[in-house]
Specification:
The structure holds two protein chains of two kinds. Chain A is α+β, with helices and mostly antiparallel strands. Chain A has helices at 41-49, 91-101, 106-119, 135-148, 165-182, 193-199, 217-222, 227-232, 292-298, 329-333; strands at residues 3-12, 15-25, 30-34, 56-61, 64-65, 76-79, 153-157, 185-190, 202-207, 210-215, 237-239, 242-244, 249-252, 260-270, 273-279, 285-291, 305-310, 314-315. Classes of the chains: A alpha+beta, B mainly alpha. Chain A binds chain B through residues 49-51, 70-72, 74, 76-78, 80, 82, 84-89, 97-98, 101-102, 129, 131, 142, 145-146, 148-149, and chain B through 158-159, 161-169, 172, 176-177, 180-181, 183, 263.
């Protein structure tokens, strides 16, 4: 077992950041901690790193109880959202930092730093200072710095959060490939479900200091255990007790027994996908995701009356709901 | 046009209030040539005052630098009761007049003070060099703290956390990461503390007893010469003080300039 977190609790004053959290991360896997801000995901990562002390519970790294160990003794590499680059040091010295602290031989340090800089494609930048690098380059440097000391565990706290959309996408695929090369047990924190689904083997969905569900990306999408997971992993419409994915709506021009009448409010063309926002006679609003071909075939127009039917929907029983019964307000802003 | 007016205003203000008076002191000093000025600052009393001033700086600045960095770290990185009080106490030397500080030191270390018994053991604090050093440390205490605190806040503690996950202990983290990151604040604080220590008059004047050739620093020497109508001596000593201050700034700038190229 790579990492095991058992019944960890952590409070900051009155705020409960972690409420009896237990997770297991298999050796060599890439795991995402996914949740909205304030869900406790970053705190959990910092507890694993030893940067925060849990009030209760224990942390095991490679089957050794690390709960009382300081960060220095845990064999973890940590990558911060805002890089935490040593600004007064060159890229080379940043990467060499952990090796120098460990008093490795000069030749060995030189070889290892060179290797890592090649691995993160920064070999031409050894003499630059962090201020002379782009955000993406800085984060790759921070990654090389964390990997230099050959950690048993690599922890990344929203590593791509400060980067622009394009660089984010490149860098996360690159991280996945890097992970496949070096096979170090990795946990990364993100609030972006697409990012989590894109590269991780396992996703831990967190909310309000608790673990909502753990599973593979597809598993979470297909079999969410509760409405939080369903609405956080991918877009969702809510009609009464039913949760419906936008691509599970069927649109027709003629009614059949199971359809409802709907008026199209707005049509948004997003390339291959077309978003059709509509209102039901009850006043409830929802949106459907259809292919461009389907939209053209139906010759959809705004203000047009169509007939909709959910091909698949989901009802979670025994769940207290805090959201208004009409429609999940996030659904429209979360295509 | 507006920019030009602003610039004229700023330069005019500086010229009238700073450059003018200092310029006149320089002019008056060398009015009768270099010889008399040189003679005035090479008398045994003047030379003694010069070295005593250097001693004040050499002792007080390192103490205040070390204490100042420590204090700033405690203020920024730790939470505890009484933090506000400590924060306010550090500014005390700014708020209290140096003369009052001098009197307070006499009350504490004088013959009837709490530590009056020290003199019975042969340790003379008041009217002697130790008292003057205490006074200098007191008045120049806040500078390093006040310069370092905002820099520490700005850099945050992520770099320190990164260092700790990379295996660095407290001292290694401080020495290799924190100190280089705050060096600008420290440097500026040191310059200000040095300038203050060089120029301190009030507090030192009260505790020194102004004994010629024994407890006279440069500033006290200037006053003494002035009161004895030795204007050349007073001006010449002032110029020496001014040059010492300028040298401090220059050293800092050269040091700073090298760092900038390294960045």
């Amino acid at each position: 077992m790579g990492i095991a977190v058992n019944n960890v609790k952590k409070r900051f004053g009155d705020f409960v950041a972690l409420d009896d959290v237990s997770i297991e991360v298999p050796d060599g896997a890439l795991t995402a901690l996914l949740g909205p801000s304030g869900s406790g995901k970053s705190t959990l990562l910092r507890v694993i790193a030893g940067l925060e002390q849990p009030d209760e519970g224990s942390v095991l790294i490679s089957d050794v109880d690390a709960t009382g160990l300081p960060p220095q003794m845990r064999g973890v590499g940590f990558v911060f959202q805002h890089y935490a680059a040593f600004k007064h040091m060159t890229v080379w010295n940043n990467v060499a930092f952990g090796l120098k602290i460990r008093k490795r031989q000069k030749g060995e340090i030189h070889k290892r730093v060179q290797q890592l800089l090649e691995l993160v494609h920064l070999d031409g930048f050894a003499d630059r200072y962090p201020a002379q690098l782009s955000g993406g380059q800085r984060q790759r440097m921070a990654l090389a710095r964390a990997l230099a000391v050959e950690p048993e565990v690599l922890l990344l706290d929203e590593p791509f959060g400060a980067l622009d959309a394009r660089v984010r996408k490149d860098l996360r695929l690159w991280l996945r490939r890097l992970h496949d090369e070096v096979h170090v047990t990795t946990i990364f924190v993100t609030h972006d479900q697409e990012e989590a689904m894109d590269i991780s083997d396992q996703i831990v969905v967190m909310n309000d200091g608790k673990v909502e569900q753990v599973g593979g990306p597809r598993d979470l999408y297909e079999h969410p255990e509760n409405e939080f997971v369903m609405s956080f992993i991918g877009p969702v419409n809510r009609l009464g007790d039913e949760f419906i994915r936008p691509h599970d709506f069927e649109l027709m021009l003629e009614p059949n027994g199971s359809t409802q009448e709907a008026m199209i409010d707005r049509i948004v063309h997003l390339g291959f996908e077309v978003r059709v926002e509509f209102a039901l006679p009850s006043g409830q609003q929802a949106w459907a995701q259809v292919t461009r071909e389907r939209a053209e075939e139906l010759e959809l127009q705004e203000k047009q009356i169509v007939y909709v039917r959910p091909a698949r929907s989901r009802v979670f029983e025994g769940q207290e709901t805090e959201q208004p019964a009409a429609l999940d307000s996030d659904a429209l802003s979360n295509p | 046009m507006a920019r030009l007016t602003l610039r004229t205003l700023a330069l005019g203000y500086l010229g009238l209030l700073l450059a003018g008076p200092v310029g006149i002191v320089f002019y008056r000093t060398f009015e009768n040539g270099f010889g008399p000025a040189w003679d005035a600052v090479t008398t045994p009393d003047a030379v003694h005052a010069f070295w005593l001033t250097i001693l004040m700086v050499v002792v007080s600045v390192p103490i205040n630098t070390a204490f100042g960095i420590l204090c700033a770290l405690v203020l920024v990185r730790q939470e505890f009761r009484g933090k506000t009080l400590l924060n306010a106490a550090i500014d005390l030397p700014f708020a209290v007049s140096p003369v009052v500080i001098g009197l307070a030191l006499i009350l504490v270390y004088g013959q009837d003070g709490w530590f009056g018994w020290l003199s019975e053991h042969g340790i003379q604090v008041i009217f002697s060099v130790p008292g003057m050093i205490l006074a200098t440390i007191f008045v120049s205490l806040p500078f390093v703290v006040r310069e370092v605190v905002p820099v520490l806040r700005e850099i945050g503690d992520e770099q320190e956390q990164a260092a700790s996950t990379l295996g660095a202990n407290w001292w290694q983290t401080f020495w290799r990461v924190t100190l280089p990151a705050i060096r600008w604040g420290v440097g500026y604080g040191v310059v200000l503390a040095t300038a203050r220590a060089l120029g301190e008059f009030g507090a030192v004047s009260v505790v020194s007893g102004k004994i010629q050739g024994q407890t006279e620093t440069m500033t006290l020497f200037v006053e003494q010469r002035f009161q004895q109508f030795d204007l050349t001596g007073a001006y010449a000593a002032s110029v020496v003080l001014a040059l010492m201050a300028i040298l401090t700034l220059l050293v800092m700038n050269i040091f700073g300039g090298r760092e900038v190229k390294g960045r």
